[in-house]
User: Fold this.
Amino acid sequence: MSTFKAPKGTYDLLPPASRQHLAVREAIAAPLRTAGYGYIETPGFESVELFARGVGESTDIVTKEMYAFETKGGDRLALRPEGTASVLRAALEGGLHKAGNLPVKLWYSGSYYRYERPQKGRYRHFAQVGAEALGIEDPAVDAELIILADQAYRSLGLRTYRILLNSLGDQRCRPAYRATLQDFLRGLDLDEETRRRIDINPLRVLDDKRESVRRQLTGAPLIVDHLCDDCRAYHDQVRELLTAEGVAFEDDPRLVRGLDYYTRTTFEFVHDGLGSQSAVGGGGRYDGLSEMLGGPALPSVGWALGVDRTVLALEAEGVELPLPPTTSVYAIPLGEKARTTLFSLVTTLRKAGVAADFSYGGRGLKGAMKAANRSGAAYTVVAGERDLAEGVVQLKDMESGEQVPVPVAEAAEELERRLRG
Ligand code: AMP
Assistant:
């Protein structure tokens, strides 16, 4: 061990566990690729102002959790705490919305940073895979995104997650509801900070997890009872589309993603095996965000799924991902001449797409066989001076233990044939 450790709230992804994370990222991305989402990558940092506007001045993320800093050149930047603001910024800057093909569908995968109090499932550096559909207001797009996330989780073998669904209304019905809610909240016994929140962002008070607050919230007016006809019809369509596709969800009239420009559909994926950090992913519609960033009206919807928590959810359910072995063939040369021959065989196999590895460092047979066992290889190829003099290598089936000589020139083909079969 060196004198250095991973910073507080972070952890390293090391093999073999790292394979799970990679497989989760792949599994989430796969349904998006088949649904026309294009890959987007944006910088790991952006101007602080983008997040202040794009995530919300009053949110914990912006006020408490951002890694903000000033560069030597005097720019105020922050490590990205989430993906949506950056993706929208990049799409507007690149003019993707002007190409005429709406919605612009994008997916991304990367690291995000929040200065949070670390605990299991809550880190200061974590990974998300996200998707955004920009520029169309159509319940089918909202439903599509929820279905794709559901498909991703199912393909991983997750079973005991729940989809919580709500509508936050729009600029027509929300203001009246907001005022009604504020009236109600002002009558409660709340601390200073929460009272301030009533003025800035009252919906977020509904999301307060403290028991003392929750108790008082029974009987709070709910947005579902205040939706305008358009929002109600929109929400009903999202629900019908999900139901028609057999995607089960729970109506959660208290689910908010508390930012003022979040509109209509909001949803969260929760897993009950994760304790307090139960949200594995979430998203919703943000029809006003583009204008907040100085862009044109671009009604959009998206989600982000947490890779770290999805891995924890798989562990909680005892799901073993069917990961292919990292090594299929392990080559063990005994002697200098065999080194050249088998090194060449390994290179040939790799070019043909066969996962092959090699015993380096001139290790003896016993140690090399141990390494071959540990590698999980289905076959080892051993060759000594005598084998090569006869023009063969020894091919050993690691499962049955059976060993046969195979002509050097045919070894690659024979291995490929056996591994395919
Ligand atoms: P949010 O933007 O907060 O809704 O985050 C979306 C998803 O990212 C969450 O559902 C989590 O799975 C994941 N996530 C958010 N914050 C963290 C964190 N500090 N540590 C690990 N995962 C996180």
Remarks:
- The chain has two domains: 17-173+227-317, 329-420.
- The first helix runs from residue 18 to 33.
- Residues 82, 114, 116, 121-123, 126, 128, 279-282, 304, 306, 308-309 surround adenosine monophosphate (CB under 6 Å).
- The two ends are 44 Å apart (CA to CA).
